[in-house]
Write a sequence for this structure.
């Protein structure tokens, strides 16, 4: 037996197609344990699709996903998920604490209702994202950044060891961005692995250890200092390299 | 007829009592399931299901020659359910969008149902009489055993909502997250939709296929106005549904020619209107009041700061100015005179002669506060 599995996530030959159009083509991905990883790429590169296919939310045409050596279906409890904030209707009649408790539904299983224990875990999670004062707030009254923090709290109560986050920094205020970065670092410090779909190339080296450049196919994947190169970025983003000059100017 | 008479009828008149009970049962069940339909943006599904149920009713009659409600409800449920599944599959496997699929399935099933109905009515048999009451509903034909059938089916639906409360809530709020946790989304989807189909078909005899969708959408839409909690919303929605059923049954018992179904639907429409306008927070009336209050506050603030600006140009902040100047500065905003009168009441301004106004000491203070709060506005 391999006592020390090198990769906590192993994706091989993952291919997803909508009708006859390939969205992901033969993608391999290896993620070692305990790192913060960004998935970057242009619009339509298949970043969200990759996460959803790994989580089994989209049926892949081909390929295999292993989470700590076993298929995702057997490892659900190890995985937490933060969907895009815009994927739900925030006018839904419910409160912040209620949404956070939903993160416990998986371990509760069928029919059993959340109780005192869930309440306590949810409050702790809200504390961590700085939202404990908002516990009883109706969710439609939240700002974008607060919504994002509620989603993060919901993922925290899943008590997973691997987290997939879909654009957690999308459209949040500076305070929230700082809070999320701190949270990601805390997660890494406690040995968790986090994979984020990310949009802002300028913050990749600052926030993340590893990066995957994706554009339908995998362009490159590895430690930021090794693969986050102008050459790879040009390959991923094609001719749109205006930001590269900005990047150099910034350095 | 007076209120005591109505109560007397309700308690002791068999027909009125049965109709009222039936209408209330359908209101409770459709109100509860309508809550989920509304939140899952499936309100139109109710319309499609109820129309699609018509051929099921006629075929069930043709096969059994029975008009027992359990038989007809079963037929309606099967047809409504098939229509729903067909619709879901169209959306899943083709490029046709949901609204188109709804329209398509609705008209195909309903047209087929109407054709069967016309055909059945020409049969040399008298038992089919009254089958066409499924179009607009005829609550007066409800018998005790019909109401019991409705109550039993409705009770089962409500019970299942209670059992799968947590799952249905998660499904309605965030289905992808639910899927990532391992809940079988398609199964829950079909279960909840099946319960919606049941809620609709048990109301068909009383309210009819044409109006039944209102009983799905309206109570939930009204309830949403009053609360921000799912549980409370479901309870209120059921309550409004039952209330409309009761009121509708009572009103229609007053006069001849007042069919129960439409009166029930009208009652729930009144509840919706009242809720839309007068519910706290979400009600349009209160929103309007809040807007007016804000606008007035802004107007008053702007008149104050204008007086202040004008005054400082003279080196004397309490210099009096004519209302015409203020009107020019607030061009298009109006209400200058009224703002001044309000300010006078509060002691922030004084009228020096017919048309001239000046700040008082307290007005000066207020004006300074306002100008400091918004440094960018001059």
């Amino acid at each position: 037996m391999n006592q020390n599995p090198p990769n906590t996530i192993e994706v091989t030959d993952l291919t997803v197609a909508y009708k006859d159009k390939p969205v992901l083509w033969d993608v391999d991905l290896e993620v070692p344990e305990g790192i913060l990883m960004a998935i970057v790429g242009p619009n339509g590169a298949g970043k969200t699709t990759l996460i959803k296919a790994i989580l089994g939310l989209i049926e892949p045409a081909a390929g295999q996903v292993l989470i700590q050596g076993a298929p995702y279906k057997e490892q659900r409890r190890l995985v937490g998920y933060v969907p895009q904030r815009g994927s739900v209707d925030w006018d839904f009649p419910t409160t912040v604490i209620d949404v956070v408790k939903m993160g416990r539904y998986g371990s509760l299983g069928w029919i059993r209702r959340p109780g005192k224990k869930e309440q306590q875990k949810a409050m702790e999670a809200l504390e961590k994202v700085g939202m404990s004062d908002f516990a009883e707030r109706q969710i439609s009254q939240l700002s974008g950044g607060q919504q994002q923090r509620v989603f993060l709290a919901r993922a925290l109560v899943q008590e997973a060891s691997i987290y997939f986050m879909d654009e957690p920094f999308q459209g949040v205020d500076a305070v929230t961005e700082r809070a999320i970065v701190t949270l990601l670092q805390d997660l890494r410090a406690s040995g968790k692995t986090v994979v984020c779909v990310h949009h802002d190339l300028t913050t990749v080296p600052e926030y993340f250890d590893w990066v995957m450049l994706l554009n339908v196919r995998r362009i490159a994947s590895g430690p930021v200092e090794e693969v986050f190169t102008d050459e790879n970025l040009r390959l991923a983003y094609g001719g749109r390299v205006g930001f590269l000059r900005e990047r150099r100017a910034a350095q | 007829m007076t209120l005591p008479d109505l109560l007397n009828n309700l308690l002791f008149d068999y027909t009125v009592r049965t109709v009222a009970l039936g209408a209330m049962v359908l209101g409770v069940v459709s109100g509860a399931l309508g809550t989920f339909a509304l939140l899952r943006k499936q309100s139109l599904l109710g319309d499609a299901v109820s129309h699609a149920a018509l051929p099921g009713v006629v075929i069930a009659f043709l096969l059994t020659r029975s008009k027992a409600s359990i038989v007809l409800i079963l037929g309606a449920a099967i047809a409504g359910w098939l229509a729903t599944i067909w619709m879901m599959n169209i959306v899943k496997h083709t490029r046709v969008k949901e609204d188109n699929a709804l329209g398509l399935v609705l008209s195909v099933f309903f047209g087929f149902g109407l054709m069967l109905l016309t055909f059945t009515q020409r049969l040399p048999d008298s038992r089919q009489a009254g089958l066409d009451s499924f179009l607009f509903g005829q609550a007066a034909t409800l018998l005790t055993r019909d109401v019991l059938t409705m109550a039993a089916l409705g009770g089962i639906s409500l019970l299942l909502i209670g059992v799968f409360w947590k799952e249905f809530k998660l499904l309605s709020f965030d289905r992808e997250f639910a899927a990532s946790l391992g809940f079988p989304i398609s199964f829950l989807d079909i279960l909840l939709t099946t319960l919606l189909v049941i809620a609709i078909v048990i109301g068909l005899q009383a309210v009819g296929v044409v109006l039944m969708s209102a009983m799905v959408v309206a109570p939930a839409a009204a309830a949403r106005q009053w609360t921000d909690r799912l549980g409370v919303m479901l309870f209120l929605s059921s309550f409004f549904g039952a209330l409309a059923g009761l009121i509708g049954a009572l009103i229609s018992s007053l006069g001849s020619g007042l069919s129960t179904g439409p009166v029930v639907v009208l009652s729930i429409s009144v509840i919706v209107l009242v809720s839309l306008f007068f519910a706290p927070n979400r009600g349009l009336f209160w929103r309007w009041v809040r807007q007016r209050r804000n606008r007035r506050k802004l107007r008053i603030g702007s008149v104050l700061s204008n007086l202040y600006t004008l005054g400082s140009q003279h080196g004397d902040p309490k210099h009096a100015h004519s209302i015409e100047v203020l009107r020019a500065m607030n061009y298009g905003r109006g209400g200058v005179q009224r703002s001044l009168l309000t300010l006078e009441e509060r002691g922030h301004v004084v009228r020096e002669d017919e048309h001239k106004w000046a700040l008082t000491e307290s007005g000066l203070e207020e004006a300074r506060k306002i100008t400091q709060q918004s440094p960018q506005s001059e």
